[in-house]
Design goal:
By secondary structure, the protein is an alpha/beta fold. The chain folds into 2 domains: about 40 residues, no CATH class; about 260 residues, Rossmann fold. Helices cover about 35% and strands about 20% of the residues. A hairpin with a 3-residue loop joins strand 3 and strand 4. Helix 6 crosses helix 9. The chain is globular. The relative contact order is 0.12. The N terminus is likely disordered.
């Protein structure tokens, strides 16, 4: 099921059969009406068709009111039998969210999920690994006016609860991995949602960028004022007290953003926030650039700490 609007969000076209509740939710979001999903206790997302892909990947269609079209979750599980077995709640699961740097399932800079699969890291650490997609260039923020460019809300209110629905657990541990713009997004999500995400590892990201004037940011952030709400140095200062309790960040390597990575590291040092850091080596700006294993090793240690002391 997919709902799509035109650019000014005035016309709605339906592709397939749409449930009445989906339609009412969409109208409520567009026109600022009360959220019917809250009134009916229905989740603001819908999990759709499941397709098995090569390399043991499960592709799940996902619709949420925060994106203009249906998008997808591509999932790796350590035991392929779990892909088709009924999901039952366990005490704890560890989820690794591979944050994309491109819209949809484009792969000019590689495919993070395929990198994890090729290295067998999901089996090594017994993690459920998921790569969400976005209809727009992902910057992991909410646009100030467009109801259909709300990427942070999509992550928080659709992607995470959809994974919890598919693979329930009583104490989920959630990790974030990204580079470039998705590295920026990983840090932003962790700083803004520290109770939801436990740790983030990033490589070669523009962490100190001060204005949404490059890399396709303007269309996603909308305004400087909205970007300022997400400013990483500002959020870091506000979250310092929480982040001092245990190590939750890893900042590694570079290609084009060495100055940003080093300056962000200095902010962490000055704020006395524990973290992993390495200035190099310089590697290819690509998911297959060779930097993923180091990030995963750091996340594994932080995940173990979170599992031992979940109430940080």
């Amino acid at each position: 099921m997919c709902i799509r609007s035109d650019t000014d969000h005035r016309l709605i076209a339906f592709r397939g059969k749409c449930a009445a509740t989906d339609f009412l939710l969409y109208v409520a979001i567009m026109f600022g009406l009360p959220n019917v999903s809250e009134a009916s206790d229905a989740p603001p997302f819908k999990v759709g068709q499941r397709t098995f892909l090569p390399n043991g990947i499960l592709r799940v269609e996902l619709w949420s009111p925060f994106q203009p079209t249906s998008v997808s979750l591509r999932i790796l599980v350590p035991d392929t039998r779990a892909e088709i077995a009924p999901a039952v709640a366990v005490e704890q699961r560890c989820f690794l969210f591979i944050l994309p740097v491109e819209r949809g399932e484009e792969n000019r800079y590689g495919d993070g999920l395929q990198t994890i699969a090729a290295l067998g890291l999901h089996k090594r650490f017994d993690w459920i690994v998921v790569a969400p997609t976005f209809a727009q260039l992902p910057w992991y923020c909410d646009h100030p006016t467009s109801a259909h460019i709300r990427q942070e809300s999509h992550m928080i209110e659709a992607v995470v609860p959809a994974m919890d629905q598919l693979y329930p657990s009583h104490r989920p541990v959630r990790l974030l991995l990204g580079f470039s713009k998705s590295g920026w997004g990983a840090v932003s999500l962790m700083l803004r949602q520290p109770e939801l995400f436990h740790a983030a590892a990033v490589w070669d990201a523009p962490l100190m960028i001060a204005a949404p004037n490059r890399y396709g940011m303007a269309a996603i952030f909308g305004t400087q004022a909205n970007f300022d709400r997400y400013s990483l140095p500002q959020r870091l200062q506000e979250s310092a007290g929480v982040l001092r309790r245990t190590k939750r960040l890893a900042i590694f390597g570079y290609n084009g953003f060495r100055a940003d990575m080093s300056e962000f590291h200095q902010w962490l040092v000055e704020l006395q926030i524990p973290h992993d850091f390495a200035d190099g080596p310089k590697q290819q700006h690509h998911w297959d650039g060779g930097w993923v294993p180091r990030c995963i090793d750091s996340l594994a240690q932080m995940a173990a700490d979170a599992a031992i002391a979940p109430n940080r």
